[in-house]
Amino acid sequence: MLRRLVDLLPKKLAKHGLTRPVLAAQIVESWDTIVENVCPKAKGKCQAISFNSKNTLIVRCEHSALAHELALCEQSILAHYQKLFPATTLQLRFQSGTVNRAAHMPSP
């Protein structure tokens, strides 16, 4: 009896308690793609830091003006996330601070 990996993977992740960490990693990783579509001039100037247990995605921006601009685009960003992760409702929280530029560099 052969089973497809796609069918087994969610069950195995849940069994080992990895469903939430995998979802958090996927949400954080998809930030760059979504912000590139919604607000292209913010690309590279902001970075998703973490997705916490209260379903809040924390985003760090280089300066507060950029954080305010992204806050104006919040509904569009959330709509993109809703398309990618329909079972998850999340909130956004913007912070000002240092952005790790190495995270935006393509890997060699």
Q: What's the N-to-C terminus distance?
A: 41 Å
- Cα-atom radius of gyration: 16 Å
Helix and strand run: HHHEEHHE
Low-confidence stretches: 104-108
Helical content class: 40-55%
How many distinct helices?
A: 5
Structural class: alpha+beta
Number of strands: 3
Strand content: 15-25%
Shape: elongated
The spatial strand order of the largest sheet comes to 1-2-3
The major sheet is characterized as: 3 strands, mixed
Task: Write a structural description.
By secondary structure, the chain is of the alpha+beta class. It has helices at residues 5-15, 19-29, 31-38, 64-72, 74-84; strands at residues 46-51, 56-61, 91-96. The chain has a three-stranded mixed beta sheet. The model is unreliable at 104-108 (pLDDT under 50).
List keywords for this structure.
108 residues; alpha+beta; 5 helices; 3 strands; 17% strand
Outline the secondary-structure elements:
Elements: H1 5-15, H2 19-29, H3 31-38, E1 46-51, E2 56-61, H4 64-72, H5 74-84, E3 91-96
Parallel strand pairs: 2-3
Antiparallel strand pairs: 1-2
